[in-house]
Amino acid sequence: MKRFRISLFFIVFVCLVSFTASAYAASPKTIISEAIDTLREMGKQEDVSTMAQLIDNGHGVAIVPNMVKAGLIIGGQHGYGLILARKNKQWYGPSFFEMTGGSIGFQIGAQKVALLFCINNQAGMKAFTDNKSKLGANVGLAAGPVGREAGAATDGSLNASIYSYSMAKGLFAGINLDGTAVGANHKMNQEYWGKKLSIEDALKQKASKSDVKQLLAELDTIMKKK
Q: Which residue from 9, 62, 113, 152 puts its CA 20 to 30 A from 19's CA?
């Protein structure tokens, strides 16, 4: 029994170390680079057409390249991401944020999941631009339809405010993240833009900096698959 407890504590320790290391390694540069990788992987999937349509018709997109899930019995999840706004086919931003959530159930270990959110309307944008909000609490959130699900989306007409997709271990799927908290990361925004900007002001800046151009190119590649 003693050895079992030691093993469990060791697993928890490893999870926490990995979780902390991931948090401290995050920077605007790494988030953009990993977001590009996420889009590239998602764009390879056969069932990406509905997501492509949602991005092309939407008000913005948010990407969390590494959502780390870790825990023992009671688990938690945390990740850093970026959001881009879209208006008249022009991209604006990015603004950076962090996302946290919890889960309860029998779970040991850690897992990394890449997330993409198709933001369908202004209510969805508000959920990501408020300083603190919970997805699904005051805004419609649904798992993004893929494959056969695309023709019969859960809300009937693709009119939820936000659709969420995930990529983990090569598996592309819609995912429900009700209750996940989102908050702006002002430190990263200041580091990226070189000055203090509110979330709203960051999303009024044209996405024209060299480090984000490849990200936009990957989004364009995906949108062509609608």
A: 62
CB 80 within 8 A of CB 62: no
Give burial (CB, 10 Å; 0-12/13-18/19+) of 81: buried
Closest CA to 188 of 48, 27, 23: 27
> Rounded to whole angstroms, how far apart are CA atoms 122 and 22?
31
Dump the DSSP string for the chain. -HHHHHHHHHHHHHHHHHHHHHHHH--HHHHHHHHHHHHHHHHT-TT-HHHHHHHHHSSEEEEEEEEEEEEEEEEEEEEEEEEEEEETTEEEEEEEEEEEEEEEEEEEEEEEEEEEEEE-SHHHHHHHHSSEEETTTSS-EEEPP-GGGGGG-TTSSS--SEEEEEEETTEEEE---TT-EEEE-HHHHHHHHSS---HHHHTTSBS-SHHHHHHHHHHHHHHTT-
* Torsional sign, CA 185, 175, 52, 213: positive
Letter for the amino acid at 21? A
Q: What is the pLDDT of residues 178-222, one digit of tens each?
A: 778 899 999 999 999 999 998 999 999 999 999 999 999 999 999
CA distances from 137 to 98, 111, 131, 164, 215 (A): 17, 25, 15, 15, 30
Average pLDDT over residues 78-105: 88
pTM: 0.83
Q: What residues form DSSP beta bridges with 181?
A: 100, 134
